[in-house]
């Protein structure tokens, strides 16, 4: 394949770049993926885990749309655990601890094996632009790669700087140089850049840890895979947990002036929800201890990831901190932690399709748009790959609504709301989360994956039959009457261990709080034939049916509001009754629809009513 034959160039081969390339190639276009090193495709430079609370929903939805991340995590996973089980199943967060080398290998082979994809080693120095439209990229050294569209997924490499104490060196991650020229070129094209920061903890030698003093964290008894392409997964390792001590706090307080974060050496804004250990000590002085998870980076490997001790303090301070943690007194540090400061593009400069508003044909995804995790990056990469392809075909973009999917929440939050810190997905960000559980991801989104050509027709029909069986089983449980005759009372007593006092249904019995729901469901005709996960879906819908109905009404209302478009330009100061605060927020954020306006910070129900009334009086359709 010659360089003139590409439809799309993807810059970067991390989690966003791999998903973008796979989606675009399977949709039938010719793709060049440019990466600094072929050997670093789909690296896991921070925690080698996929999923978690909120993030696991993204992985499930990616998989339902035909993405690769869940499939690779299933194959590279060494421990599978569902988080947040103390809450309802809609917010459970599946997570896989992965062998990071195996994960990267699976992803690299998948991308390299795609028809129509070329992996090119090099550093993109500038974009090629014809008029206002992007038309390719230029590599350091002068080589040009023409293309009809470009997706940038540069991660933390754009202007990247690594910090450990006073040690400051250029880098996108440990041992790899940053991208410098491309950031300057984006500024030349008129894009606003911001400075963000993230960090990573030290790595310890497993053989140097006192494992007998650490609490074991096993995986689930019945681990579940992410992907419809995976039949079963198995736990192959354990993790451990310990806690810091007051001595750790004292070490950090005594050396806080040596932290580049507090010495003023770092300008970038860090993630609020994943703070460094020095941030925890300063921001939460009333907490004497903090949890530390010890997680293998590879199956049978020596390197242990110290989850909870992210830091950029000097190396000698890191050694003292680690050795003050119970079980780690004799730990050998294989690598010290560091912070990485990098440039991001202010995300409101892209449209809902992730295409640049200034430069047609240029799409952005992943950490370059200010996200903070593998899952968020992969989701945006998939959407960018789909929409770049649809754009080249002259078709409209794929924009999942936030009321239908976590990927819709992510997309809407990134391009439609102002955020000045690294963005992380949580279940609390989804207003309709009760309807967006992991177990319903395929039913909600797989039809889109099939329509786009990313999910095989045969597999879609197999899954659809599963959904139909679940719906039929739920309906049967609500329709089958149980009359309190002697035989029926004995059956109910045997299965549910309760006395039947009057006519009822199995659906009503399953809603009771005084029964073992899983035990009962596993014995009922119509449910026992289903898999455990499908039974959980059916029972969950029955037990939470009142809440589900309410959320369905709220979702229907959100969909109606989404069809009420606002004038462009909108002049909020001309609308009688709006407060100055609301008018200024509307002016700054320029929402497209009444549903978007409802989520503008400071927008009250009264302000929404005023705006809706003004639209009606101005002749806008409601």
Structural class: alpha+beta
Which sheet architecture does the biggest sheet show?
A: 6 strands, antiparallel
Tally the beta strands: 23
Count of helical regions:
20
Instruction: Describe the strand arrangement of the main beta sheet, using strand numbers.
Output: 15-16-17-18-14-19
- The protein's oligomeric status is single chain
The fraction of residues assigned to DSSP E strands is 15-25%
Give the N-terminus to C-terminus distance in angstroms.
52 Å
Shape: globular
Rg result: 26 Å
Helix content: 25-40%
Instruction: Let me know the average pLDDT.
Output: 93
Indicate the low-confidence ranges by residue numbers. none
SSE inventory with pairings:
Blueprint: E1 8-11, H1 15-26, E2 31-35, E3 49-51, H2 55-64, H3 69-76, E4 77-83, E5 93-98, H4 100-112, E6 117-121, E7 124-130, E8 133-139, E9 144-146, E10 149-152, E11 161-164, E12 167-170, H5 181-188, E13 193-200, E14 203-205, E15 215-217, E16 239-243, H6 246-255, H7 277-283, E17 291-296, E18 303-307, H8 315-323, E19 333-335, E20 338-345, E21 362-364, H9 374-393, H10 406-416, H11 441-452, H12 457-479, E22 481-482, H13 486-496, E23 504-505, H14 506-510, H15 517-521, H16 532-543, H17 545-562, H18 580-589, H19 594-598, H20 605-617
Parallel strand pairs: 1-2, 1-10, 2-6, 10-21
Antiparallel strand pairs: 3-5, 4-5, 7-8, 8-9, 11-12, 11-20, 13-20, 14-18, 14-19, 15-16, 16-17, 17-18, 22-23
Could you write a compact summary of the structure shown?
This protein is α+β, with helices and mostly antiparallel strands. It has 20 helices and 23 strands.
